[in-house]
């Protein structure tokens, strides 16, 4: 039957397959489809050396890595299992390692129920997110952020390091190295997150001010600061959900004069979610009961993304799953937006993955 499909239609379908998983599944259907499109080839081979040229004339070198978050969903005839949410990083020579879904920590101990071999004919594999991180001599700083544009007309990388926003072209033809420099005409030194959304880069500062960077590298403020969400105790994250750009602000429920360490060891976190209104150039707070509908936000130390609660039976929508590594806890927690309460919960997966504090 596939042999009857017009060649131009197969070509159009092939152009829409952007992941290795999608290409492999398409080619596996039959010989006709396998011959219609080539094997998947990565545009960039990671890890990649990154050279930051600082304004004072000094240089800093990092290593840029890529990891992919997959949902290994069980067969459709088993509606009660959630499957597995895993993050896999592939090395220079094809070797792989599993990372915690919301951080760069290596998974040291797999649950007993985790399959030793995944038969892709039994599991449905979905790619949820591509995560990019920079490492300094193997050390990962969770405050550094990376966003990439693979568009042929706009191949750019944006990096936040020490609160400064850098940009560089994705050209690795010379010594497999990307050179980046501080974004022109931008004097902010307190950026916290950056994301590539609808063909543009968006970055947010510690006080909530947001800027957009277009393909000509023009910088424009698209949202002013939010005074109620500023201060060193607040942490901003950007995430795309159902086509909209959201900002998640997390902060401790109590802000007193305790020591920094005591403050974060055992204290409840609060969250506010804002939606970017591009027509009015401001963040609009979305309130609990209508905030996320059936969506689940996953707010990690190195990336943020959203999933549908329908894909994870038993998990509640309108929730935020977040890592607590930054706050001295080695676990994943969940915030029920309707109840405004958080608790430890590994319920996005069938069993907890233990992460080691080492790379």
Automatic annotation (TrEMBL):
UniProt superkingdom: Eukaryota
All copies of domain KIB1-4 beta-propeller, residue ranges: 80-333
The protein's name: PREDICTED: F-box
Organism: Prunus dulcis
Source species taxonomy: Eukaryota, Viridiplantae, Streptophyta, Embryophyta, Tracheophyta
